[in-house]
Amino acid sequence: MTKYDPKRIESKWQKKWEKMKTFQARDFSEKEKYYCLIEFPYPSGEGLHVGHPRSYTAMDIVAKKRKMQGYNVMFPMGWDAFGLPAENYAIKTGVHPRAATEKNIANFTRQLKSMGFGFDWSREINTTDPQYYKWTQWIFLKFFEKGLAYKAKMPINWCPTCKIGLANEEVVDGKCERCGAGAEKRDKEQWMLRITEYADRLLKDLESVDYLERIAKQQVDWIGRSEGAEVEFGITNSELRIRVFTTRPDTLFGATYLVVAPEHEIIKNLASGPLRVYDPVRSETTGRRPGGESRVKNQGEVRKYVEAAKGKSDLERSELAKEKTGVELKGIKAINPVNNEEISIWVADYVLPTYGTGAIMAVPGHDQRDWEFAKKYDLLIREVITGGDIEKQAYVGDGTLVNSDFLNDKLVPEAIGDMTKWLEKRGMGSYQVNYKLRDWVFSRQRYWGEPIPIINCEKCGHVPVLEKDLPVTLPDVEKYQPTETGDSPLAAMDKWVRTKCPKCGGPARRETDTMPNWAGSSWYFLRYCDSKNKKSFADSEKLKYWMPVDWYNGGMEHTTLHLLYSRFWYKFMYDLGLVPTDEPYLKRTSHGLILGEDGEKMSKSRGNVINPDEVIKKYGADVLRIYEMFMGPFDQPVAWSTQGIEGVNRFLNKAWMIFTHQIEMIKLFEDRGEKPIRAKEDQLARQLHRTVKKVTDDIEKMRFNTAVAMLMTFLNEVTSQAEKVGEEAQVWYYLDRDDTRDFIKLLAPFAPHLAEELWQKLGHTESIFESDWPGYNEELVKLEEIELVLQINGKVRDKLNVPADISEEKAKKLALESEKIRKWLAGKKPKQVIFVAGKLVNIVV
RNA sequence: GCCGCUGUGGUGGAACUGGUAUACACGACGGACUUAAAAUCCGUUGGCUGGAUAAGCCAUGUGGGUUCAAAUCCCACCAGCGGCACCA
């Protein structure tokens, strides 16, 4: 008998599968299609992380099972290769991101191929390939054409020392990661995508797809729909107005002050000096002087506060909520439209510019944050809803209205409706649906991304690059560092920047911003359907055949951004008639992170990184695959265990030993024209049927850990029933050809190399993945006999072996006859006897 | 801070819609084989009382509740993890 040698069999089958095109998907096959998708990796310099194979193995198991179930399966792979790390590496070393990326991809490819995944490599894509990003740019132009791409002034992180824009990740504790100087917010003209236009549908259509509950929940919350009213407050001695959004227009009589975000335009507009207005065509800011406005008296103080807020992140601003700060805009007052009361206006950084209108009406009596703020600054707290004690804290519950004129004695829901109507009638406000979701900042002032295909012409404004001129390729630059003006390094490439306007032919300048990493990943699953198409992003017939994705697995960390962005792009394309359905993914699941042995996130600096290459070298890919599935519940984070992997190694060695032996024995019998013995047939056969059922079901529910446990249990059963038979006292495992075949099939998606090798030893010439998935007999799965539990007051007192289908009457009778039960009853009369079929009898005394 | 999730032996975890808590695996301990070690095989293994493989009590983060019955449902609290829009 040969020893289990994963190295030999794994590379052997990997080569064979590639040669035989075993896992290639066929366009327009008559079989039903099944599209399995995993998030394509960013090919980092560190190589494959043991976390990657967790998701890939899971979907690989699904894909292989589906193939055996007769589907035409597509399970593609590609590279999400634009991104910050390659660029920062380039800044440090001068190595072109393209070169670094190519090298990393080669390494990733080697690593992935050594795992035995059934990827269809013929469809491989790479977001940094001009033939790919040509279509990313093309889709952007569609957004531009439809008015969903626009420019707006948005804050970026800015390091005043390095004079460059920073990604959020590069700001650590409010400081620039490179030099340690305090990072600031700085306004910059940015390309935006109007995702909010789709907020409604992104929310509603979640009902039509099968996403894991917590994934759908997180999306719903991220979109954050709320109904309420927008209310307009006038300002004393001014034509300016402040609009606020509130979900509680019923409390308007209790609004005793307003709070605006430090970024709110009213602050600039009420300051002395010219009103600054940005001219998008000329890319500059010009001054305009508003006439006869009132002025804030404590401008110095306000300006200082606004400046300080620039150095804080949104996170800090809301985190500091315990100690809320603010400054009153002295000398001006707002007018409450319902009662013409003059109320003070404050600026406070706990109000964020990005939500609602960037201004709120404060109702300290009925909002806890407002209440704390009012207590601190000694502002009026007025009760307008009964039911609480506003001296102690804000009352946020239901109740009837008081101190509210025409709303008095009404209940909250009615008051909301009445107030909204009242405001609408007088033009002071309106019913409004508000979303937390914000438009998507689509510009990056970076090198390693898709150039935004826009040409800025002095005469014509923003002009799209002609379709025939796509792709706008990334030019080589001398420096990868963003420029001191905050523009991308492309801005320094004068030759590249200077071009002609496609509309008027006059001199014009190229857009130098690039797209965010999310761009390429927002539509990659479409390109897989037709990855080599030169005429369009993908052939519409092929899209019709393959889309939508049947099952998409990825990380929880992508739930709100990537998942939402790609749904948005897809819906937009659906509206243009470019894709066949209105949702891209039928089913979405998530995997948990793999942590280091210390329970911490794996990272170089912690020194707890496990390299999959080393694991494969020591144990083989099949062991790594099964260990990653066995280590814990798939959707939860689990810590790596070097010891735990030993158990899986033993399991596969045992499987190899048992089956190579038994296959020889079966052949021996068959050669002699005898039927192999299958004594104890009943027990083992029933166990096998149970195993088939459990593994079949568990894969669908992504409960891979219990599926593996079941495979182990079966093997334990096989060994425990083995006997020595014959003259040479050979071990006999009581498995005939059919049993052996079925078990190997169950093992195949988990340990494809081992299973394929055993399959061949059984005498098959075609791949095991061309065979069919085993079925089971529901009758044989059922237990014949059960252990009936006898309880008294819910405590187990005795157990009886009885037929599984025992009747209620008989079970109760047996229970009361039990000696132990009689002892516990001690002559007392049972009050109640409860019978649970197939489980227990509980006697209540 | 906001949103989402998790908490069960020495460890990773199992327990389907409330119904035998601790499957499977790791580790530990004892034994077999071996000159020895590794590997392999067999046995024991939640805690406490007990000579016991007799009997019993206590255990699913903490405190309460619902129920004949709670790891599972409800309320409050504690701890940890993920996301928070320019990391991907």
Tell me the layout of helices and strands.
Blueprint: H1 6-20, E1 33-38, H2 52-68, E2 72-74, E3 78-79, H3 84-93, H4 97-113, E4 125-126, H5 130-145, E5 149-159, E6 164-166, E7 171-172, E8 175-176, E9 184-193, H6 199-204, E10 210-211, H7 213-223, E11 226-235, E12 241-246, E13 257-260, H8 265-270, E14 275-279, E15 284-288, H9 299-310, H10 314-319, E16 327-335, E17 342-347, E18 359-362, H11 368-377, H12 412-426, E19 429-434, E20 440-441, E21 454-457, E22 461-464, H13 494-497, E23 498-500, E24 507-510, H14 518-521, H15 524-527, H16 540-546, E25 551-555, H17 562-575, E26 587-591, E27 594-595, H18 612-619, H19 621-630, E28 638-639, H20 644-671, H21 681-700, H22 704-720, E29 723-725, E30 730-732, H23 737-747, H24 752-761, H25 778-781, E31 785-792, E32 795-803, H26 808-817, H27 819-825, E33 832-836, E34 840-844
This protein binds one RNA strand of 88 nucleotides through helix 7, helix 10, strand 20, strand 28 and helix 20.
